[in-house]
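Attaching the record inline, Q. Sequence:
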Amino acid sequence: MGKIVFNIFVIPLLYLHSILPFWFLRFIGSCLFVLVYYIIGYRKKVVFQNLKNSFPEKTEAELYVIQKEFYKHFCDLILETNKLYTISDKTFRKHFSFTENATKTFNSFEEKNQSIILVLGHCGNWEYDFVGYNFYFKQLITGVYHPLSNKNFDKYVFKLRMRFGGNLIPMNGVIRELVKLKSQKTPTTLGLIADQVPPPESAYWTTFLNQDTPVFNGPEKLAKKFNYPVVYVKAIKLKRSHYRLDTKVLTENPTETADGEITEMFLRELENNIKEQPAYWLWSHRRWKHKRPKGMENVKG
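Structure, as predicted:
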């Protein structure tokens, strides 16, 4: 899609959609669910198989309930994210907040001018997590992203994420950015979505949701390299379009932990997060498409 066509036809539609009130977006989301789930059937087999393997103790009837709830959430998620294009400060605060515990955690590190690393998964509305931090805390938030293949949409999404401030960098620039900020004596809160699929040969392999799973160990390596405390961010969906974040400090001294310990702590917290609200993780992702390469050390979580 050309830049001119995108700016003339797509941007106005996205803008008009973003100014709609949340109650109407929820109505559209319900209609979109019928289309995506019943008519298109987008990745239904992938979702159900992921659920079945992750929760072998549940009946098929229970799994289908979770599956439907996931698709309802997934459709809302798409519409909620675009709402960032025009949402006001006041409206956003009504839909996104932090627990008292999370507020105390972040404020304590801010008072010490201490850089920290946040680890989280694709739970709730992760796009709101980065934006929301800017509304409640002063320390610079640095997010890491993978550029989209479509340059027009990549630029648009980048604008959504940066509308209220912060610092966004591509994955391959993380170390360089942290070194720069440290030399400038600028403390930062580095946010890392750490449940994506890494190359199997370089992954940390463990058991996650009852399955042999390759995991990125980049957050652990960064934490040890810079000795930054690691904090897990727990996503809580209160109701449609309303989210709250909680936190748990995994370690304040990464260099004192054993290899794999931080990664395991993150995964166990993420597992608990998913089990508490199983419909709100990104089940449509092909999370378990790789098999453990032969000859790799057997790591069991």
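The mean pLDDT is 95. The first helix runs from residue 3 to 18.

More tomorrow.
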